[in-house]
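Input chain follows. Return structure tokens only.
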Amino acid sequence: MAKKISILIVDDEESVRDSLFNWFVEDGYRVECAENAKKGLAILESESFDIVLADIKMPGMDGLEMLRRIKAIRKESIVIMMTAFATVDTAVQALKDGAFDYITKPFDPDDLSHLIRNASKQISLIEENEILKEKVISLENVEDMVGESEAMQQVLKEIESVAQSNASVIITGESGTGKELVARAIHANSSRRFFPMVSVHCGSLTESLLESELFGHEKGAFTGAIYNRKGRFEMADSGTIFLDEIATISPKMQVELLRVLESKSFVRVGGNKEITSDFRVICATNRDLKTMVEKGTFREDLYYRLNVVNITVPPLRERIKDIPLLVEYFIRKYCTAMNKPLITIEPTALKRIEEFPFPGNIRELENMIERAIVVGNGKKITLKDLPLGKTAVQTTTESLDELEKNHIYQILLRYNWNISATAKALKVDRVTLYNKIRKYDLKQIE
């Protein structure tokens, strides 16, 4: 069923509002009215409208100022200006400020209907473009699934098998193995591929921020909440929501998440209206959730709700056969991005890469190749271009943050990711170390 276009009419003349309201309702549009710019903006803060028809001359705030404010809070709204005093200057200014068009009073009903139909077509084109853009992004990420090894072929079979269902999926694997790419491949091969895949990195958000991010919030719900905001579950309607680092969410959020998964409904923070959304959930973690369930740190009922299907992404050391393909892929990717001639890699350099342990997996390999292309001067990547002398997260900068990141990673490896021993060696407390691991995305491999 086609979407019902919504129109907000803002005019200080009651006769104009009534006439337009009746015309548009009869034509099948959803219509609301406001008698001045201030009330019109208040309505727009609480809900969005596809088209806003605003008079230029109104008491208090005029239509041009309202137009500028609309574009600040509802950039996607199409605004058509109305005036009985049309001049070239006001028309040009309205168009400069983002108006779709303008129309003069008294209105010709046919002209106005034609203008609204054109605006409706524009809205449809924008929405189709967004859907296509999401599809292209998903398909691009599917192409990133490079691998001929038996381990990766098994993953690709599992993706194909699960994609067409609506089953919840947990993707497990070490940090840097490409779990989000697997999630995007599942989405891109599903019946939901024409709708958005919305990603949330749970580990980077506090409990209160994560709640607002997932469920949205109402204006005034907390300090800084000056507008209503949709949550990720609402944005993922008809599509997929990807919850990365699911093991990091708090007990309170585990309860909230379980309720949403069971009812497919939720309430925005600070609100009381129940919102429903048809989404598919895919999660990822580098931790052993079953062990966390046994220890009581992750809810058993939530675990079984999420873990309908489990896909394990192999570490790079278990897919050495794929390394030459990945190296070639990353060379092409970064040569193209940096507008450099396509280069190759010396056999001795490739052999050393194949022997490297890669604790950071594909992410570390990608960083290594990117760095080699940046620092290398020849037509080939050589041994001297590769930072293979130490097992550290490779970067292309030498900022204090990067130096600290590499140092912490080295010490974590030295103490086999023993947090207490590492914290003692670094002379910091465990909380500080956990915060640093989260800050620099140095996730523990369990």
